[in-house]
Q: What sequence folds into this?
């Protein structure tokens, strides 16, 4: 079990963040959307632990509720991208031929663009707030998983157990799901875990630029964007969601690192 | 009647951008209920021929007849039906099994794919395990939890699941030590005596005495000599067969 040493604290922290995100509405001490201009821009005190924003909304409650949008959307996004990219890539590796050539050239095109630039362009074309931003991010991140899965499939493609499965009467689909995916899952999961931090950052980044979650939604990127002009006078408004992004990105990145050590001890 | 016939099989692989001929107009057949031994030095194309016969590799030219029908171009469902009657066993027993699946799961895979119920699968798996000389609790083990010989027995069990007519055994004993080799060969022989047809590939001519009715000797992608096992092991005509025989006798001398 030595391999798992060091994984636990990060898994615990990540678990807590995810729990926080899922149960956010019950955990927020105040209504994150209740405005009271008479309470605007209060610095942190015993009532508003992280102060209030310019509409008098409780920043702590907004950060907590914001975790739901940011973390949950990022997780869903990550799952969708990983599953879609891996299945496509694994199929390419198994089938080869024209499907493989077309998909790989397509992924070359996507991979040739700088990620964030492409995401910004795609999100503004797609529109539609957070869902559009998520679509844009799926569009840029699936090729990474497709390439990885394809490469992994190529390493096991000529294993006799796949040929034995074929001779047992298994279809391509049965071979893919019963034999291939389980044997390539490790490195893909590690990549996904390492990617979560990036996705959280990118999703928040798009919202910050006004291409994701729209005001008044309590989303970390959008909240930072709102606090931008007050960074000198009311720094807590931008610092609170900024720290939330920093901490969750750091936790998920370190968890990814530890997972990599577990799956790939070299 | 011939169960499997290969006619004028031609195959080249690309090496450094140039095609290299690996099989050169190979014609060979195996009679129903008999065992054909296929011998030759490493790299002479035995595995390639076996893989072409079982349609795991495409030939560049030639014809494959199995059980009276042309299977050279079969795909999809047609090919799946061929595998009901034609099975292959590989050289490396461990990599013949998905490392993440229990042996029982893998052995019953052909049954499951043919719609056999879970209960019947379990029963038949136990029966198959006994048939190849393994305890039924081997179904609950992972491939890395059994020895190479046991794993190869499990592979034979899986190959037998659908009662095939033809077994292609590609150096199934090379990765095993000598006593285990003999046991596995004896197991194959007992299957042949019960009516199984077999192609037994090896580079050890001595092994064929125990198992094969006839022998085809390959050299550099060609069949250079074919005949009954007795003839070839006692009066080899080709230099290839003589060399293989000498090598086999040499090894036997070491084993005492
Ligand atoms: N997929 C492949 N791509 C390129 N060359 C190949 C491929 N498979 C086999 N070869 C070449 O074809 C030749 C015959 O290989 P094959 O595996 O059929 O020999 P073999 O008689 O089975 O040898 P061994 O006794 O070592 O198993 C070898 O020179 C090998 O390098
Ligand atoms: Mg071989």
A:
């Amino acid at each position: 079990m030595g391999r798992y040493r060091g994984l636990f604290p990060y898994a615990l922290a990540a678990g807590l963040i995810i729990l926080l995100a899922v149960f956010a509405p019950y955990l927020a001490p105040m209504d994150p959307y209740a405005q009271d201009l008479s309470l605007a821009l209060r610095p942190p005190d015993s009532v508003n632990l992280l102060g209030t924003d310019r509409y008098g909304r409780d920043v702590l409650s907004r950060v907590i509720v914001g975790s739901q949008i940011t973390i949950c959307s990022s997780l869903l996004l990550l799952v969708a991208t990983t599953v879609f990219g891996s299945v496509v890539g694994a199929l390419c590796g198994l089938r080869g031929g024209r499907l493989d050539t077309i998909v790989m050239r397509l992924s070359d095109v996507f991979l040739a663009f700088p990620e964030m630039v492409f995401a910004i362009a795609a999100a503004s074309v797609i529109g539609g707030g957070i869902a559009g931003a998520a679509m844009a991010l799926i569009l840029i991140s699936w090729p990474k998983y497709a390439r990885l899965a394809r490469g992994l499939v190529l390493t096991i493609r000529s294993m006799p157990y796949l040929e034995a499965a074929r001779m047992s009467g298994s279809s391509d689909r049965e071979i893919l799901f019963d034999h291939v995916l389980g044997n390539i899952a490790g490195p893909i999961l590690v990549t996904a875990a390492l990617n979560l931090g990036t996705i959280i950052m990118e999703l928040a980044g798009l919202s910050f630029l006004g291409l994701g979650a729209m005001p008044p939604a309590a989303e970390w990127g959008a909240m930072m964007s709102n606090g931008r002009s007050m960074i000198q006078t009311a720094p807590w408004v931008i610092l609170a969601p900024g720290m939330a992004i920093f901490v969750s990105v750091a936790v998920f990145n370190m968890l990814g690192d530890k997972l990599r050590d577990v799956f790939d001890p070299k | 009647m011939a169960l499997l016939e290969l006619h004028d099989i031609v195959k080249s692989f690309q090496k450094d951008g140039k095609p290299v001929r690996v099989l050169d107009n190979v014609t060979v057949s195996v009679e129903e209920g008999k065992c054909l031994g296929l011998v030759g030095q490493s790299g002479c194309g035995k595995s390639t021929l076996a893989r072409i016969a079982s349609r795991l590799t495409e030939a560049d030219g030639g014809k494959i007849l199995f059980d009276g029908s042309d299977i050279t171009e079969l795909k999809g469902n047609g090919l799946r039906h061929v595998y009901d009657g034609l099975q292959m066993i590989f050289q490396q027993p461990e990599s013949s099994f998905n490392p993440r699946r229990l042996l029982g799961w893998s052995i019953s895979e052909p049954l499951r794919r043919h719609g056999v119920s879970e209960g019947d699968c379990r029963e038949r798996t136990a029966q198959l395990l006994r048939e190849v000389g393994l305890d039924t609790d081997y179904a609950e083990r992972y491939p890395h939890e059994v020895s190479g010989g046991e794993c190869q027995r499990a592979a034979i069990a899986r190959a037998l699941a659908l009662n095939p007519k033809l077994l292609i055994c590609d150096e199934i004993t090379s990765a095993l030590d000598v006593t285990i080799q003999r046991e596995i060969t004896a197991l194959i022989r007992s299957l042949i005596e019960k009516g199984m047809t077999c192609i037994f590939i090896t580079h050890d001519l001595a092994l064929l005495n125990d198992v094969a009715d006839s022998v085809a000797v390959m050299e550099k992608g060609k069949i250079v000599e074919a005949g009954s096992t007795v003839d070839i092991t006692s009066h080899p005509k080709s230099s290839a067969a003589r060399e293989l025989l000498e090598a086999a006798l040499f090894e036997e001398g070491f084993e005492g």
Chain A has a mean pLDDT of 91. The radius of gyration of chain A is 22 Å. The CA atoms of residues 161 and 167 of chain A lie 10 Å apart.
